[in-house]
Amino acid sequence: MDHSGHGMNMDLPPFTLGRGLEFSADPFFLTGCIAALVLYGYAVLRLRRRGDGWPVNRIAFFFVGVLSIAAVMCTGLNDYGMVMFSVHMVQHMVISMLSPILLLLGAPVTLALRALPVAGRGRTGPRELLLMLLHSRYMKIITHPVFTIPLFIASLYALYFTALFDFLMGSTVGHLAMMVHFLAVGLVFFWPIMGVDPGPHRPGYVMRMLELFAGMPFHAFFGIALMMASQPMVGTYADPPASLGIDALSDQSAAGGIAWAFSEIPSVLVLIALVFQWYRSEQRTAKRADRAADRDGDRELNAYNAYLASLQARGQ
Q1: Cα separations (Å) of 122 from 60, 126, 129, 215, 313?
Q2: pLDDT (tens digit, 9 = 90+) per residue, 55-66?
Q3: Residues 6+ apart with CB under 8 A from 141
Q4: CA angle, 214 then 189 then 195, to 5°
Q5: Which residues contact 69 (CB under 8 A, 6 or more apart)?
Q6: What's the rounded Cα separation, in Å, for the pair 77 and 82?
Q7: Which contacts qualify for 42-51: CB closer than 8 Å, 24 or more apart?
Q8: Most exposed: 6, 45, 120, 131, by fewest CB within 10 Å?
Q9: What Å distances lie between residue 62 and 59, 197, 298, CA to CA?
Q10: Do 79 and 1 meet the contact criterion of CB atoms below 8 Å apart?
Q11: CA angle in degrees (0–180, nearest 5) for 277-281-286
């Protein structure tokens, strides 16, 4: 059967992991993934050619992040995701909650700012344009929690529980736009929380944790709503092809379980990253204090001790 206007036969055999991971490239995402890897690799080489280093762990995070996108968009998972709600939910959760975290840990904006050449006086080059974008009012709005948290939530409820999802799944362009939207929402939601790259909002670590946990419960509620529904809630998946041998309601329940589980995984990953960043920040602060003490001979500590001694003398 021809499904969703994608021009391909959707009478797929029953889903297995092997079939899901077979190479089946979406041209748009394949091109984007290759371009991202090439540009990132080229920027790292530019730094190293001039004698600057770039952490290997950041390279690894970014490459794994790009590969995670390719894994769900350039394999059989993308084909099965057109007719199986559970597989689509894997795509959605990976591309909106796992891939963005990995990409952001790769610090691509910081890398670009370091690798791009500075334009001459009075000139505007790619680096200057990037800085203008980072400090623009537009960027301040789309990365502010007042905007990102409702957008993060609306990407679930306003999409799946209205006719919008079925409309987007009705064409190749609509499907691609939806997947790009998931990725973009994940990036703007996690960007200020991760705090690796420079941005308009750099909240403290406690505030970042609060922003993280403000959005995660809604994923759990969304998953539970799907699991407890007594009828199919999304028209696209209400009548799966007979060749799959699945029941629409059972598949929807599995999709809900996946959404519920993924509400926990990113929280743990980001929390670990934030605690590590916090620890590193405290270490740097302590080292700066030690260096300052070495330079001034612990002048601040000696002054405080003298103040205590004066108080003690007055009390005698």
Answers
A1: 37, 14, 13, 43, 64
A2: 999 999 999 999
A3: 147
A4: 100
A5: 29, 32, 33, 94, 95, 99, 183
A6: 9
A7: 42/115, 43/111, 43/112, 43/114, 43/115, 44/111, 44/115, 46/115, 47/111, 47/114, 47/115
A8: 120
A9: 5, 13, 43
A10: no
A11: 150
Which two structure tokens, joined as six digits, stand for 218? 């809604």
CA atoms within 13 A on the CB side of 191: 26
CA neighbours closer than 13 Å in the CB half-sphere of residue 40: 25
How do residues 116-152 score in pLDDT, each as one tens digit?
Answer: 888 777 778 888 888 888 888 888 888 888 888 888 8
What tokens does 169 get? 């799944």
Question: What's the gap between Cα 26 and its chain centre?
Answer: 21
Tokens representing 209 are 């944790």
CA atoms within 13 A on the CB side of 150: 5
In angstroms, the CA 19 to CA 12 distance is: 10
> Can you give the length of the chain in residues?
316
pTM of this structure: 0.81
Contacts of 192-196 with CB under 8 Å at 24 or more apart are 192/143, 192/145, 192/148, 193/270, 193/274, 194/101, 194/104, 194/105, 194/270, 194/273, 194/274, 195/274, 195/277, 196/104, 196/105, 196/107, 196/110, 196/277
Residue 149 tokens read as 């948290």
In terms of DSSP H, where are the helices of 55-204? Answer: 56-73, 76-80, 85-93, 99-105, 108-115, 126-134, 137-142, 145-160, 164-168, 172-194
Backbone angles phi, psi at 234, to 5 degrees: -125, 120
